[in-house]
Design brief:
Elements (H helix, E strand, L loop, with lengths): L17 H11 L4 H8 L3 H8 L7 H11 L3 H23 L3 H6 L3 H6 L9 H12 L4 H8 L7 E4 L7 H15 L9 H14 L5 H13 L3 E5 L8 E9 L2 E6 L6 H17 L15 H15 L5 H5 L5 H11 L3 H11 L16 H6 L5
Parallel strand pairs: 2-4
Antiparallel strand pairs: 1-3, 3-4
Helix pairs in contact: 2-3, 4-5, 5-9, 11-12, 11-13, 13-14, 13-17, 16-17
Length: 373
């Protein structure tokens, strides 16, 4: 018997700002934030704050939004009222949540094991360490700052693995802390896309000790901080992206499968989200909070980064033997493991075939690069 769900009584533990609606409209119309800011008569910084829910709407701004994007002034003010109401409700709920209950949501043992927080003994010490880790004063502050953190990230996740939201948020926070220490140039999407050709050549490097530092340098110069971070148990992400600032993006990669085909496909997939999609949306590979079109676009981008369009006909008629794969890999400029992965994914090659052409990574080589503090 199917359970009847009362949707009217459902109260989510997140709040969606009017800026999310604005971002969706800008994306659908291919409008840049700069042109939107100009038509709205506001600075780009104000627009950024508006999109993130940090700038409250008033009647004047709602009227101008109506003129720029459509919908009535009342519509935009209703969105603002609902957002502020949701924020207040979440704060009240959080205030009634004890520190002990909150800590239980977090992977504290894993956080100690991974070196994110200090080893501690008493429950009180655990709570203090976790508050320090997130940079918050109390549980209400954490909910206000982080309960919707995953709504501003782009994920590739294994849908077969149960996800604990607390572990995902902790992983993102660790990546954010590391990224803050990575000096970067200003975000430059044109230059970033151009750098991907040099990144392809890095796929031939056998060891992460060789290619990771160069990968981080190439990306940092154009505004992308690349962080390598193991995931705690309960966080099945392979990678994630978010913009820490309008001028600085974070890409965190987990090396979840520790094979070259998986790692590099994830990198190009996340690069696609930075280049093709909005700054504030959530993209989940399991489809829970992502449009199929956006995920297909990211997958297609990653695929053509590995096998360019001009070589696609040859790829689909490629003989599935070692010599043919090696010759084709040299022609398209990526390591043969990536070609094997694509052939397996397309069904042209069994998943038990030619796996010796893939490179397998070990954690001591990944960590030896120094990207994991």
């Amino acid at each position: 018997m199917n359970e009847i769900v009362n949707f009217e009584a459902f109260e989510p533990d997140w709040a969606i700002p009017p800026g999310a609606t604005i971002s969706a409209i800008l994306a659908s119309r291919s409008l840049s934030r700069e042109s939107f800011a100009e038509s709205l008569g506001e600075s780009i910084d104000t627009v950024q704050r508006l999109l993130l829910g940090l700038e409250a709407l008033n009647d004047d701004l709602a009227e101008r939004l109506s003129g720029c994007l459509g919908a009535s002034r009342a519509f935009w003010m209703n969105r603002e009222t609902q957002y502020q109401s949701d924020i207040e409700r979440i704060r009240k709920q959080a205030a009634n949540t004890s520190l002990e209950s909150w800590v239980k949501q977090l992977p504290t043992r894993e956080m100690v094991k991974l070196g994110w927080i200090s080893a501690i003994c008493s429950p009180a010490e655990v709570a203090v360490e976790c508050l320090k880790f997130f940079g918050v004063q109390d549980v209400a502050d954490w909910h206000a700052r982080y309960a919707g953190a995953t709504a501003n990230a782009s994920f590739r996740m294994a849908s077969s693995v149960k996800t604990n939201p607390g572990t995902v948020i902790a992983w993102l926070r660790w990546a954010e802390l590391v990224a803050e220490r990575i000096p970067c140039g200003h975000w430059n999407p044109v230059a970033f896309k151009q750098r991907l050709q040099e990144v392809k050549r890095l796929t031939w490097q056998k060891s992460p000790k060789t290619f990771l530092s160069r990968l981080r340098q190439l990306c940092a110069e154009v505004g992308v901080a690349v962080v390598i971070a193991r995931t705690p148990k309960g966080c099945p992400a392979s990678g994630a992206t978010r913009f820490l600032l309008p001028t600085k993006a974070l890409m965190v990669l987990s090396f979840r499968y520790r094979s070259d085909d998986q790692f590099w496909f994830t990198f190009f997939h996340e690069a696609a989200h930075l280049l093709l999609h909005g700054h504030d949306e959530l993209f989940l590979e399991d489809g829970s909070d992502v449009t199929a079109d956006e995920e297909r676009e990211a997958n297609e981008f990653a695929k053509t980064a590995i096998v360019p369009e001009e070589h696609m006909d040859e790829f689909f008629t490629l003989s599935p033997d070692e010599d043919s794969v090696l010759r084709f890999a040299r022609r398209v400029g990526v390591s043969p493991g990536l070609i094997v992965g694509q052939l397996q994914h397309s069904g042209q090659l069994g998943h038990d075939r030619l796996n010796w052409l893939k490179r397998r990574y070990v954690w001591n080589e990944i960590e030896a690069d120094g990207l994991i503090p």
